[in-house]
């Protein structure tokens, strides 16, 4: 699978390219997490019972993926499981102890991110997945998105993205929440539209959603204020298509909607 971009004039392609690269990395991380969690579930239940929420995946200097499961408590990360993940069928448990400082700062950042979004996660039954990566500045980028729900629903409308320093400060918050989560049942391939019309540019969460679920739907359209973005299957290669909206057509649509609203209000 390769990724090509069809560029629209007046579209911030640099910003979009960065988001598609991150979405591609998130998808790889997601697969590693899935493979290692499947293996984890076959392990000793007593050890599994000691785990906290602060598990994560990372790539070492040779780009090999690792998954570590443990618990972050009182400023310390207790490593309980460490897997090297090479493929779905090659997930190897190792007794190698990961660097304590590395574990502590990842555990601390995850703990901080969970605390930050707690009011929202406590108010919904939606399950979330988390992803973490150290950036060039030595801070930790934490991404929290709605997971693929157990009932087969694909959820969008909220994304929680924090850059957290080793001192445990949130130095940047790029979260976006529409005030409610929306979803589509999978199982019936069809065209779907993601309403992000209040946003000028596609959000990372919307790009990741479209990339993650591209094989579950015939077409996924991200509907932004001034553009549409969609991944489509071009003979086995997925291509991102970005189209700038026609301002005249959009103004016409807006007027029509306003007329319908006025008509509706008169009837009440």
Overview of the molecule:
The chain has helices at residues 13-40, 45-48, 100-116, 118-122, 204-212, 247-267, and strands at residues 3-6, 56-59, 65-73, 76-87, 90-93, 128-134, 140-146, 153-164, 170-173, 176-185, 191-196, 219-224, 227-234, 237-244. α5 (204-212) links the parallel β11 and β12 (219-224). With 268 residues, it is an alpha+beta fold. The model has no long low-confidence stretch (mean pLDDT 93). The protein starts with a strand and ends with a helix. The chain has one domain. The chain contains six helices and 14 strands.
Q: Sheet bearing the most strands, described?
A: 5 strands, mixed
Whole-number total of structural domains: 1
Distance between the termini: 53 Å
**Which percent band covers the strand fraction?**
35-45%
How many β-strands, per DSSP?
A: 14
- Please trace the helix and strand order, writing H or E for each element: EHHEEEEHHEEEEEEHEEEH
Classification by helices and strands? alpha+beta
Spatial strand arrangement across the major sheet: 1-14-13-12-11
Low-confidence stretches: none
Binned, the helix content reads 25-40%
Mean pLDDT: 93
Morphology: elongated
Counted by DSSP, the helix tally is: 6
Using the CA coordinates, give the radius of gyration: 21 Å
């Amino acid at each position: 699978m390769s990724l090509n971009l069809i560029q629209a004039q007046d579209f911030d392609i640099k910003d979009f390219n960065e988001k598609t690269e991150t979405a591609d990395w998130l998808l790889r991380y997601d697969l590693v997490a899935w493979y290692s969690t499947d293996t984890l579930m076959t392990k000793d239940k007593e050890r599994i019972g000691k785990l906290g929420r602060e598990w994560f995946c990372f790539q070492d200097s040779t780009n090999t993926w690792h998954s570590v499961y443990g618990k972050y408590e009182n400023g310390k990360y207790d490593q309980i499981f460490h897997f090297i993940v090479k493929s779905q069928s090659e997930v190897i448990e190792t007794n190698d102890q990961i660097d304590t400082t590395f574990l502590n700062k990842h555990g601390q950042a995850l703990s901080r991110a969970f605390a930050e979004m707690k009011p929202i996660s406590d108010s919904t039954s939606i399950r979330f997945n988390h992803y973490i990566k150290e950036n060039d500045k030595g801070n930790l980028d934490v991404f929290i998105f709605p997971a693929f729900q157990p009932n087969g629903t694909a959820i969008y409308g909220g994304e929680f993205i924090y850059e957290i320093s080793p001192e445990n400060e949130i130095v940047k918050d790029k979260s976006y929440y529409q005030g409610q989560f929306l979803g589509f049942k999978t199982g019936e391939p069809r065209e779907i539209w993601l309403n992000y019309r209040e946003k000028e540019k596609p959000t990372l969460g919307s790009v990741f959603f479209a990339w993650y679920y591209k094989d579950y739907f015939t077409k996924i359209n991200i509907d932004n204020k001034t553009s549409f973005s969609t991944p489509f299957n071009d003979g086995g290669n997925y291509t991102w298509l970005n189209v700038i909206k026609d301002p005249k057509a959009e103004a016409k649509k807006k007027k029509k909607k306003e007329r319908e609203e006025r008509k509706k209000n008169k009837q009440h």
